[in-house]
Amino acid sequence: MLRKDPLIHFLVIGGILFASLSWFGRAPESLERIVITADEVAALSRTAELLQGRPPSEQELDALIENAVREEIYFRRALALELDVDDDEVRRRLIEKMRYLTENTADPEPPETDLERYFEANPAHFRIPPLVTFDQLFFSPRLRGDSVLADTNAALASLREGSASDVVGDSTPLDDRFEDANPDRVRILFGDALTDAVFAEPTGVWFGPFESDFGWHLVRIVARSDARDPTYAEVESLVRETYAAELLAEANEAAFAEMRAFFDVVVQREADQVPETWP
Fold this sequence. Notes:
This protein is of the alpha+beta class. It has helices spanning 6-25, 38-52, 58-80, 88-102, 112-121, 123-126, 141-144, 148-160, 183-190, 192-198, 236-260; strands at 131-139, 177-181, 206-211, 216-225, 266-267, 276-277. Strand 3 and strand 4 form a beta hairpin. The longest helix is centred in the C-terminal third of the chain and has 25 residues, at 236-260.
């Protein structure tokens, strides 16, 4: 109950502020030196010149130096008061910086012989899926309302009787023709029914209709190819990219393992359980 009492909160916060102000009010036993180096001054000057299109005046540079001194003082006093402890934002930024310093620092360039062996050992990674090239016509429920499905079927009948495809359908940001589309791409855009059809129906004829999240569609298959295993030459760049990414991930894990060796980690899953060693 005491934790929820506003008076208790007020007294606690007041005590912290009083202690902090009292700490600041004492003369330090020894002065802590802050050095703003010539390189730092030059960097301040360059940044100001980039921002304002001219070198800073002497007064402006003095103001920049004073601001740098103020920031350093605030930073050091904040650390002395441990204001960084239990601060989620500070924690997040430190984690980001540590990841930046330790991850993706390797630049693996595997030898050609290693690439070929990797390709041969991982054929599933590089298997080319079935591909289809098809045309689609769109019919908009927003424009046609309740008649959209009847209009789509009427257009299909007209197309099968020889009408030109450019005189039917509605405008859409979707492509009129999809070249060498794989099943995943088709499924994301058009759904399961149309995807199954374009990889099974004969080429050269209009069929449908199929409903998607956009509206209704008629489809004509232009060309289709079966899944196959490519030659190394066809996918050399992909093999290099994939293998390099795998080597980089291994290097990242090795760097983390070196840091992990400095810690003995235990985890308490429940409040009444003894902490267990974490793998």
